[in-house]
Design a protein that fits this description.
Its EC number is 2.5.1.15. Keywords: Folate biosynthesis, Magnesium, Metal-binding, Transferase. This is Dihydropteroate synthase. By secondary structure, the chain is an alpha/beta fold. The protein has one domain: Dihydropteroate synthase-like (TIM Barrel), CATH 3.20.20.20. Helix content is 43%, strand content 11%. The strands form 2 sheets. The protein has a 6-stranded parallel sheet with strand order 1-2-3-4-5-6. A two-stranded parallel ribbon has the order 7-8. Helix 9 packs parallel to helix 10. It is globular and about 50 Å long. The two termini are 33 Å apart. Bound molecules: 9-methylguanine.
Length: 261
């Protein structure tokens, strides 16, 4: 899943891809590099960020989805937790919803049910503005798995088909570095519940803090973590550096599938 942030303050793109033309060029490059999904987001969810209004988010995301629709052949995903944005985005060509709030906003379950597209349910403790203040868990893996299974139950109760759900532990969303490490080691416990698991570790603070790397120096660390997530069963890797990440995932898959010579 290639990341296409269309926010002026985005986590690592710094607003470079804000215009629809630049967004299309970047999406085409990610597709050529092997992305199977392009995830378009108009609201930053980096630690400390504040939300934007529905109108602001719509004005960022919809022109980009319209520009991409029919021009790239891989499915488009919309990274949003707002029901109105979900509805308009699917209307504009998005075929997947990536919700960092796991459909907890009012009206989000109903929107996802009506739209009948696949949804990624992500775990987050707190909100982006405050989530890194004091993340706290007794058993991070158990708590994240329990939360996600409860969201699956809520989604199914609302009429969303189980086959349309995927799960994401939300690396960096209300987690310390040790929490993120535990979650990555414990990923098979989430994978074991049978739904596809998405992992997003690309350029995250974990890489920066552990290795002492600035944002633009996190490629090797991000690919290492993507490799580990794939080996632990993640089926979708959300990444900025698509070509390098796809190479790593393809090699893991090759080695895992190889039979004894
Ligand atoms: C929008 N966004 C930022 N980081 C993410 C992650 O790790 N997973 C998902 N699903 N979305 C993310």
């Amino acid at each position: 899943m290639g990341i296409l942030n269309v926010t002026p303050d985005s986590f690592s793109d710094g607003g470079v891809f804000v215009g629809a033309d630049q967004a299309l060029a970047h999406a085409r490059q990610m597709e050529a590099d092997g992305a199977a999904i392009i995830d378009v987001g108009g609201e930053s969810t980096r630690p400390g960020s504040r939300g934007v209004s529905v109108d602001e988010e719509l004005s960022r995301v919809i022109p980009v989805l319209e520009a991409l629709h029919g021009e790239v052949s891989v499915p488009l995903s919309v990274d949003t937790s707002k029901p109105a944005v979900m509805r308009a985005a699917v209307d504009a060509g998005a075929g997947l919803i990536n919700d960092v709030m796991a459909l907890r906003r009012d009206g989000a379950l109903a929107a996802a049910r009506d739209l009948s597209v696949p949804v990624c349910l992500m775990h987050m403790q707190g909100t982006p503005e405050t989530m890194q203040d004091k993340p706290c868990y007794q058993h991070v893996v158990k708590e994240v798995v329990t939360f996600l299974l409860e969201r699956v139950e809520a989604a199914e109760a609302a009429g969303i088909e189980r086959c349309n759900l995927m799960l994401d532990p939300g690396f960096g969303f209300g987690k310390t570095d040790p929490h993120n490490a535990e979650l990555l080691k414990g990923l098979p416990k989430l994978v074991g519940h049978g739904l596809p698991v998405l992992a997003g570790l690309s350029r995250k603070s974990l890489v920066g803090r552990v290795l002492g790397r600035a944002m633009e120096e996190r490629l090797a660390g991000s690919v290492a973590l993507a490799t580990m997530a794939t080996m632990h069963g993640a089926r979708i890797i959300r990444a900025h550096d698509v070509r390098e990440t796809v190479d790593a995932v393809r090699l893991v898959n090759y080695v895992m599938a190889a039979q004894g010579a």
